[in-house]
Every structure is written in C-alpha cells, then in structure tokens.
Amino acid sequence: MQQLGYIAQQAYTITEMTLEHLFQPLGIGPTTIQCRVVSTSHQTTLVENHLPTEEFVAYQEARARGGVGLIILEAVAVARSGLLTAHTLGGYLDDMVDGYRRIVAAVRPHGTRTFVQLFHGGREMIASAPRPVVMSSSAIPSPRYHTEPRALRTREVEELISGYGRCARVAADAGLDGIEITAAHGYLGQQFFDPSMNSRTDRYREEARFLVEALGAVREAAPKLALGVRLSADSVAAQRVAPELVDHVDYVHLAIGDSSTFDGCTGIVPPPPSPRNLIAGLTRPFQLGRPLIATSRVIDPHDADRMIGTRQADAVGMNRALITDPDMPRKARDGRRFLRCIGCNACIAHYHAQTPIRCAQNPRTGRELTLPRPAPARDRLRLVVVGAGPAGLAAAAEGVAGGHEVILLERSHRVGGQVCLAANAPAHAELAASLLDNYAWLWDEPAVELRLNIDADAQLVEDLKPDRIVLATGAAPFSPPHRLEGIPTVSAWDLLAGTKPAKSVIVADWGGDWAGLDCAEMLNVAGVTVSLAVGAVTPGETLHQYQRNQYIGRLSRSGVTIEHYAALYEARDGEVRFRNIFAPELETTLRADMLAIALGRVPVDQLATEFAARRTRFVEAGDCRSPRGLEEAILEGTLAASQMVTGQTPAATIGA
Ligand SMILES: Cc1cc2nc3c(=O)[nH]c(=O)nc-3n(C[C@H](O)[C@H](O)[C@H](O)COP(=O)(O)O)c2cc1C
Ligand code: SF4
User: Residue 641's pLDDT is what?
Assistant: First the structure.
C-alpha cells in the first residue's frame, strides 16, 4: 500500500472517550426515550397527496433500526392554509391515522419513540401560481418568500387552535408517543409572539396567548402524549416568551434560524463554516426546568455527549448526522466507524427543489426500498477504478463492501480530486476533511491497492486484468475562447491549488459552481485585493441558497468588490472587459495584476474515448460523464461498483 498523498486536517479524531451520557434513557413527560440522540423534524418529500408513502415509512424505519432514541416526524400542517409546500403532510386529514399507524408499526419494534411536529407556516409559504391566500398574525409582508399576508380574523385564529387539537387527536388515535408544536424559524407561532410581526388589537396581541391556547388544545385532545414546543434559540422574542410556555409543555426543543430573512434562513440548516455545535452556546435562557433538546450543527456523538454532560442540553438533535448515517447511534455506541455528515446541504436542497430527500454522502438515504445495502458477492472480482475523486472513492468503497478487490489509480499525488482544491477555502475546508475521513478506512483494507501519480492509459488498465473498469476521471477547468492578453491569466483552480497570486486579482466567475467564490474568498483571507465579477443573476446562482447567502454575506463583509451581471469577454492592455448579461451594450472595465477564470468545467474523458475505440467494456461515474456535483459523483460511483454485486448492466441504473 502506498502512502496517502494528502495531508488533510482530520475533522474528527478517533477518541477513546466513552459516551457516558448519550445512551442514558431520558423521561419526557409520560414517555421515556431509550437514548438521547434525536432525529429532528425534517421534510422528506416522501409524501403524496399530503400523506406518507411507503418510502417514508422505510426511511423512518431505517433511523429506528439505527438506534435513535426519538424520531420527531416532519412538519405536519394543522390546516390546509398551513401547508408549507405541495408536499407537506396534512395532519388534519383522516387518512393520516393509517399513515401514522404504518410508521409506528415500523418504528416501535426498535424501541424508538415517535413524535410528530404540528405546523402552520403563516406568512411563510413556498408556492407557485395560482398561489393560495397567505395568512399571518398580522398583514406584514415576508421579505424572503415575498408573501403579503392578510391578518387572520379572530374567529380564524380560534379555528386554527381547534385544528391543533383535532390533529393531536388523530396522532393519539394512531398511537404516536408525543407532539411538538413548532414556533421556531419564524413560523406562525413566532408570528404571534414576536412583537415585530404582531400588530393585532384583539386578545392575540398578548405575546404568549396563541401558543398557550394551541398547547392547551393539544393537551386536552391528547392528554397521554408528551407535548413540547420548538423555538429558535437565536430569537430574542423566543427567549422572552419561553418562561410563559414551560408550564404547558413536557419539553422544549431548540433550533436556530428564521425563515423570513435571507440572513436568518441560513441558520435553519446551517452549513459550514458555521461553527460546529452552534446551538450549544444558546441553550442557557431556555433551561427552565423541562427537558431540553438542542439541535444545530452537532455532528459528532462525542460533542453531543459533552453537551449533555455539561448540562447544555438533555438530548441532542443530530438531524443531518442521521440523514447521512441512520446507523450512527448504534455504531457510535459500539465504537464502530460511521459516515460523517459533510455539511454540503444537498439534503435541504432537495427539499427546496421539492424532490425526495437525498444525501450526497450516502446514496442510500431516501432510497431505502430501491438501493439495498451492499452484500458480499458470490464471486470475488477485480475492480480497477481510474480517478480517486469522490466518484472513484465511492466506487472503491462500494467495491470493497461487496467483497471485491479494488485497484485505484490516481493521476495526482493525492486522493480527493476537486475536493482537495476546495479544501483550501473557508467554505469547504470542513467538507473536504470530513469526506476524506469518510473514506480513510479504505487505506487499511488489504483488498484495496491505491496507486498515486499514475497517468493511466488503456493498455495500463487492461494489463491489470480487471473484471470491471470504472472511469472516474473527473473534470478540468474550461478555457474560454476569448482574447485574453496583457494580463497574467490563470484558472481559479490553479490559485486554489497553490499558484502564487498577484497583489490584486480579478476573479471572473460564471456563477455556476463553487470555484470562483472559493478562489475569491481564499485570496481575500490571504490579503489579496479581490474583485469578483459575476456573470449571473447572483453569485453562486446554482449553489444551495443557504450556502449562497453565506458566501455573499462573508464576501460583503470582507471587502471583496462584487461586480454584478458582468460576463468576461476580453482582456487587453492591462484592462479586463465585461459585458452586462442583461444589457450587453453596457461594458465594465476592471484593472488588476492578475485574472483568474472560473467559467465552468469540461469532462476529462479521453480514457473513455480510448476504451470505446478498443471496444473494452467500462462504466463511467461522476464529472467525466459531464461535470456536476458531489451528489452525482458519489451516487454514480456507488452504482458503478454495486452493479458488480447485483450483476445488473451498467446502463440499467447509472444516472437513475
Ligand atoms: C431536509 C430538511 C428538512 C427540514 N424540515 C424541517 C421541518 O419540517 N421542521 C423543522 O422544525 N425543522 C426542519 N428542518 C430543520 C431540522 O429539524 C434541524 O433543525 C436542522 O437540520 C439543523 O440540525 P442539524 O445541524 O442537526 O442538521 C429541516 C432540515 C432539513 C435538512
Ligand atoms: S446531504 Fe450533505 S449536509 Fe445533508 S446530511 Fe448528507 S452529507 Fe450532510
């Protein structure tokens, strides 16, 4: 086995520390959870006609089988007007009883408790035309979704409160263990208790009244169920109202964020470089004598254990950690390795795109019924994988899990591909370290042979006598045909890889991926004067909105000059010229000592062309098929190798 060529800061050191607190039971009102890891409410889009599908049930069962103590089912609307999207569960529907029963039947045998989150978005609504009427505590427009609600009439508020009771009865009839009312994230509950959103003149002007009445309705309808409230810990209004709520609940659940603002919404599912364990420092005002569940950016069970040990929380929501590896609790308890969440936010991107939940790091998430876990194959085969970026690493991992021999060939001196470039920028340092950590076990496997600094050609690969060839040769930066003269010009990748920058750099970014933003941010941190010219509607146009918002926030604070709607077209005599993408006759001229280009990527597929000419069978995975993201790379790498196990033909499943 050759030495690994990368020196990545390991995000997680394996410690011998035992998990003293995490696997202690916790009483929550009338129920007890078997351990203190919680799968928090998250919309899966495994929903049809506002009811859970079979995929939904299988998804939740996977979490229960993995040993989680409590599953809080995703937001369930208490009334039609509270449906956040076309895929929100309808807690008010009679058919929900059957849906809940199927979930409880799948989850309970594993000892896991099931609560449901009762929800009304109020003025927060994601809808397309013809859009429904939006209602809130008051007629105050919401800046992020640009909704313009009318104020609920007093009678309507009373009906909604009865709706909470009705939904609680449905949940109790179906055998759920508890109910959580969400008043976090700026949703309806918060729209009542936050004075900046409540200008009413009736009795619901009192900050706590709406929630207290809703909690009362639930308690009356489902007296044997645990009852909690979810609040955003970073909301001053929530901190103020919490003491008025505790007498009405069995637990308090803390999240972060505010759906109604561009800055606040990023806190709902905060990506790195938001600090790990973000919630830990915000729990104190909510320690009011009720069990406290704290959630946000906790991805390591040791951190969760420490939070409980230091009394920052009684239980810890580890939502994305469990989306990545539902078996994490059991594995952590047994001291086994598990897949770490890399913080890419593909999961919430799927939610916003209204497509079924997926995890970039774990292709089996959301595919519990269609992509079985790898089983050892009858015949041990030799798999040669060319390219050790994410697609190649995923193929290697799947090959080993299937009991095969894997030879992994990599042109550069390290594994990781583009992830290693991104590792040098603040936005992706943690992602890169976590991803490489997730595959580090491969290098201890006798079945894996890693060969670095190998520029593989078809003959070299064929000489290895493979049973299956997986090509994961990645992508390279696109060189535009523009006339670029009179200024040193490099690719953003060159700078990210360590090319020395000049004192001032113009980054020409097409807005289609991370490279331009990471380059600009890395240079800025290093003290370079940076102008970022973006030829798109917004910087990071194709990134998930929370990441995009955070990039824009950080770049705005850092003094990077951002030139909007500016598409590069030429450089001459030390001047770099851009055209406005909406009004091409408008030009902008920028000056700097260096030009860095981030105008997209092209596939590296020469080897595929070579094999095709030789009529050698191969499977391609990831960017060499056409450059896209981590999710596609890892999915396709996994499928390329799993087909060896199942014996399916490559064309049958790749790209599914
Ligand atoms: C795909 C997705 C959907 C979510 N939907 C909900 C929801 O329905 N209700 C809610 O209160 N929070 C929702 N959240 C927020 C999570 O409950 C949790 O607070 C968030 O993921 C941060 O925790 P983590 O850092 O452990 O992932 C969602 C998160 C994700 C990733
Ligand atoms: S998609 Fe990314 S952020 Fe979401 S759970 Fe998976 S690894 Fe974590």
Answer: 93
pLDDT at residue 649, rounded to an integer: 44
- Separation CA 272–CA 507 (nearest Å): 23
Q: Which amino acid, 608? A: A
Give the DSSP H/E element, type plus range, for residue 114: strand 113-119
Please list the ranges in the chain whose pLDDT falls under 50: 1-16, 647-656
Q: List residues bridging with 576 in a β-sheet.
A: 571, 590
pTM above 0.70, yes or no: yes
Per-residue pLDDT tens for 70-96?
999 999 999 998 888 889 999 999 999
* Nearest alpha carbon to residue 271 among 632, 548, 635: 548
Beta bridge partners, 602, equal 476
| pLDDT of res. 101 | 98
Residue 281 in 3-state DSSP? helix
Residues 6+ apart with CB under 8 A from 618: 469, 470, 471, 608, 611
103: which 2 tokens? 């979930």
> Which residues sit with their C-beta closer than 6 Å to ligand 1?
40-43, 74-75, 117, 182, 184, 230, 255, 268-269, 295-298, 317-320, 347-348, 351, 357
Q: What are phi and psi of 316, to 5 degrees?
A: -125, 125
For residue 244, what pLDDT is reported?
98
User: Which ligand has the shortest distance to the CA of 351?
Assistant: 1
Q: Minimal CA–CA distance to 606: which of 387, 383, 384? A: 387
Residue ranges in 48-153 assigned as alpha helix (H): 54-65, 96-107
- Work out which ligand 1 atom sits closest to the CA atom of 297: 25
Shortest CA distance to 345 belongs to which of 362, 364, 359? 359
Pocket test for ligand 2, best of 344, 351, 362, 435 (most atoms within 8 A of CB): 344
The span from the CA of 539 to the CA of 262, in Å, is 14
* Alpha helices in 222-281, H assignment, sequence order: 236-245, 262-265
Protein residue whose Cα sits closest to atom 8 of ligand 2: 341
Angle of helix 390-401 versus helix 630-646 axis, rounded to 10 = 30
